[in-house]
Amino acid sequence: QKHELVNDFRQFRDSPLLKIWIGPVPFLVLFHTVLNNPVHMDKAYAYKFLHPWLGTGLLTSTGDKWRRRRKLLTPTFHFSILTEFLEVMNEQAEVLVEKLDKEAGKGPFNCFNHITLCALDIICETAMGKKIYAQSNYDSEYVQCVYKMSDIITRRQRMPWFWPDLFYNYFGEGWEHNRSLKVLHSFTSNVIYERAEYIAYIESDSESDQGMRKRRAFLDMLLKTTDEEGNKLTHQDIQEEVDTFMFRGHDTTAAAMNWAIHLLGSHPEVQRKVQQELQEVFGVSDRPINTEDLKKLPYLECVIKESLRLFPSVPFFARSICEDCHINGFKVPKGANAIIMPYSLHRDPRHFPQPEEFRPERFMPENCVGRHPYAFIPFSAGLRNCIGQRFAVMEEKVILASILRYFNVEACQKREDLRPLGELILRPEKGIWIKLEKRKQQH
Ligand code: HEM
């Protein structure tokens, strides 16, 4: 059923409006988006189940709170800080390549977890300034709870009878939910306290710090930032944002990189072209990737975009319609819930002829001329678009480039074997199975 949800809506693409019921709540499925109207930027009912974990951080907040937060947080994704994060990404890519090296030449294996743990290490260090060594220590209770919580929330969203807290706590997974919540919150809360103390120490002792200054993390900026009246964020405000980055900042990129690996592994001609591009930038050197290199990989960027078109990590998202309006001649009342589906929108043959085919060339600048601005929206669009999109593309470039510099990838699944599950994140049902072969010129 889950599989069909994202696939089967395509047949309704030309209907003016489609309504589905999820339990007692009607949702409009919109192929013609409401994203360009800043009035409709509130999040739909289903996001309520994220609140216990994420509070009302950037993803889940609305109205003035969201506006203030977005303004405050936008500078934390500035180019200069992203450049510092490149170091972390390179280091973690190296760990990943070492792990993958052990699988090379040995036949098919599932790379999904390897890549996901790498993305998790990257977000922990960049968001919180904390190394958790997920790639070598999968047993971490925090790591396990991040996954458990995403699963628990998805299950609850699908079972309307568990929406009321009372039923959920008595008959559902309320107990497990609350236990995981405690682990997640106490971990991030401790990290925030530790980091705040560390920053206070550095600031009070400006001479001794130069040599030992740690790398900056998003958290440092959250601890220092002030609004127009000079007010700092509270501990709870900061916790909401850190938890949001942890939730939003790794599963999404991990899924995207996995899909890209599958597509590259099934299209050797595309893979060779990426490797050719890498060869021109790096030659036989195994030096880390710098910001200049990133600009010289336009074809790899096309591959990333085309993979996100076919398999957008966030296959659908929902909004609440904030004002009565008309859509295709139908009156839609204020308060209605609307679902927007990048997965279906991206398969519109008017914008992407033969939409199921993997053709990175579609995203070369000359081929994008005249394309509708909302034909490709993996990061949503308008005011509430993804604040982490540049971070995400940078991470994808570093990891995919690192893998393809060392290995040739061969996919061991056909497209029909993948069975994308469209939950909070679009994942392949049984992972991504590949074979790796070491590339000769590197050794
Ligand atoms: C390939 C990777 C990613 C994809 C496909 C993606 C996609 C999206 C989408 C579709 C939204 C809109 C969701 C909605 O309206 O409900 C969104 C919002 C958001 N994303 Fe991402 N994202 C990615 C990576 C990241 C990363 C790496 C971070 C953080 C480091 C991040 C942080 C956020 C936040 C905080 C929001 C809420 C923004 C707001 O409402 O103002 N995302 N993302």
Automatic annotation (TrEMBL):
Catalytic function, reaction form: androst-4-ene-3,17-dione + 3 reduced [NADPH--hemoprotein reductase] + 3 O2 = estrone + formate + 3 oxidized [NADPH--hemoprotein reductase] + 4 H2O + 4 H(+); testosterone + 3 reduced [NADPH--hemoprotein reductase] + 3 O2 = 17beta-estradiol + formate + 3 oxidized [NADPH--hemoprotein reductase] + 4 H2O + 4 H(+)
GO MF assignments: aromatase activity; heme binding; iron ion binding
The entry's keywords: Heme, Iron, Metal-binding, Monooxygenase, Oxidoreductase
Named cofactor requirement(s): heme
Positions with a binding annotation for heme: C386
Enzymatic class: oxidoreductase
InterPro entries to which the protein is assigned, alphabetical: Cyt_P450 (IPR001128), Cyt_P450_CS (IPR017972), Cyt_P450_E_grp-I (IPR002401), Cyt_P450_sf (IPR036396), Cytochrome_P450_Monoox (IPR050196)
EC number(s) on file: 1.14.14.14
SUPFAM superfamilies according to UniProt: Cytochrome P450
Function field: Catalyzes the formation of aromatic C18 estrogens from C19 androgens.
PANTHER family, alphabetized: CYTOCHROME P450 4V2, CYTOCHROME P450 FAMILY 4
Family: Belongs to the cytochrome P450 family.
Stated name of the protein: aromatase
Organism: Oncorhynchus mykiss (Rainbow trout)
UniProt gene name: LOC110534411
